[in-house]
Each structure stands twice: as C-alpha cells, then as structure tokens.
Amino acid sequence: MAKVGKKRAAANAKVDREKKYALAEAMELVKDVNTTKFDASVDLHIRLGVDPRKADQAIRGTVVLPHGTGKSKTVLVFCTPDKEEEAKAAGADYAGLDEYIQKVQGGWTDVDVVIAMPQVMAQVGRLGRVLGPRGLMPNPKTGTVTPDVASAVSDVKGGKISFRVDKFGIIHSSIGRVSFAPEKLTENAKELITTLQRMRPSSAKGFYMRSITVASTMSPGIQVDARALA
Q1: Pairing between strand 222-224 and 209-216?
Q2: For 140, phi and psi rounded to 5 degrees?
Q3: Tens digits of per-residue pLDDT, 140-197?
Q4: pTM surpassing 0.85?
Q5: Is there a contact between 49 and 205 (Cβ–Cβ < 8 Å)?
Q6: Where does the pLDDT of residue 208 fall: very low under 50, low under 70, confident under 90, or very high at 90 and above?
C-alpha cells in the first residue's frame, strides 16, 4: 500500500490544482500522472449550466469519437427474426427477441449497449425496470431504437457513445485509454465538447461549460480551461 501511496503522491504533485490547463496540455498530463499498470480509461467530466429537472435542459445524445474509446462494446439487438443475421453480420454480439427478453427478465445485463427495432419496443418496454437503472434502455434520442439495426451496430462498434447529464448537471464520458496518443485524446475530447456546445438549450443562462475535468481511472483530476473552448 505504501508503494501505491507514493505513486499517487508523486502524481498529485505534478498537477497544479489551481491551474486550468489547455486541453492538449491536460491530455499529455493525464497520461503522465497515470499510476495504473493496466490501460486505464480516460474520462471527461463536464459540468453544464443546465437544470436537468427541466425537460429541455436534460441533455442527452450521442457522438462518434474519431478514435473510438479503445474498448470493444458488447451489443445486444432486439429484432425480428428476419433481421438477426443482418445484425450479427454488422457486429452484434447477441441478436433475437424472445430468448433475450427472458434472459434480461431473469437479470442478465452483461452488455454495454442495447439496440431495438421500433416493431419490438412493446415487448422490450417491459424490461424498463431492469435496463433503465443500468442506462441500457433503447431510446430514439440516442439512435438505439431504429429499423436500421445494422447501421446502429456499426456506429456503436465504430466509436459511437451515448451521454446524458446526471442530476447534478454533469456529463461523464470516456474519451479513450491512457495508451492513446495525446493528440487522439484531444481530438476525441473536442468532438464531445463541440457536440455538447451545439446542444446548448436556448433556456440555459450564464456560462454553459461551467467546468471540465479530465482524469484516468486512478489519477488525480486535471482542470481544463473551459472558457478557452467556448
């Protein structure tokens, strides 16, 4: 434990808590202060000037990161029998209907993304109590309810991620791994930030990007200069 403590202390010492770093500089630093032996996730935490209790400010959507997240996502597709092979050919790990509805009803949720055809949402809707709390419920706003399941699967496998603001007005999202080059992390971060800027509700007042912090799984948080990105 003492050795881990020393590593974390050394990492903390490299981060100026009072400084707001330029985005590219922050991405170099987050790699430098990583203390894990595994390929840790790099995450952005963006505090928005919104009230998530208001429907028009409950930000949620999707973005295709140019370099993906570095993690292969497991995809389940609820579809009619004629679309099963198409979904699997596009990269779906599981595709079907009744069999998987029963599995999920039994508590199985060992997937990262769930996609469904509109025609089967009546049956899938009954799984809300299981899928909803885990953020897995298919939704048209995130492109996970669609007749074109093959394209949806390809998008997810190609780096498309979903995001939604939490009750504190914060978006939490992975933008890659510590093994990524700083330039790739920067480009992924810019894509997410630009997408959120385009989604700014007209009713949101004051500064929209209140704060941006980047951190890897076990590293200290690094503040990013949000106003420079406005």
Answers
A1: antiparallel
A2: -60, -30
A3: 988 899 999 999 999 998 888 889 999 999 999 999 999 999 999 999 999 999 999 9
A4: no
A5: yes
A6: very high
Helices 23-32, 182-198: crossing angle, 10 deg rounding: 130
Task: Give the contacts of 196 (CB within 8 A, at least 6 positions apart).
Answer: 46, 48, 59, 163, 171, 209
**Direct distance between the N- and C-terminal alpha carbons of the chain, in angstroms, rounded to an integer:** 42
**DSSP-derived secondary structure letter, 33:** T
Side chain identity at 60, as an amino acid letter? R
Q: Cβ(125)–Cβ(88) under 8 Å? A: no
d(CA 170, CA 181): 26
Least-confidence region, from 75-84, 181-190, 215-224: 215-224
Would you list the DSSP string of 113-169?
A: EEEE-GGGHHHHGGGHHHHGGGT----GGGT-B-S-HHHHHHHHHTTEEEEE--TTS
Are the CB atoms for 98 and 61 separated by under 8 Å? no
Q: What is the pLDDT of residue 1?
A: 40
CA distance 26 to 224: 7
Give the CA distances from residue 46 to residues 163, 173, 222, in Å, rounded to whole numbers and listed in that order: 11, 9, 12
Identity of residue 121: M
Query: 90 has which bridge partners?
Result: none
90: DSSP letter: T
Least Cα distance to 143 among 194, 75, 198 occurs for 75
- Pairing, β 160-164 against β 170-177: unpaired
Q: How far is it, in rounded angstroms, from Cα 202 to Cα 224?
A: 24
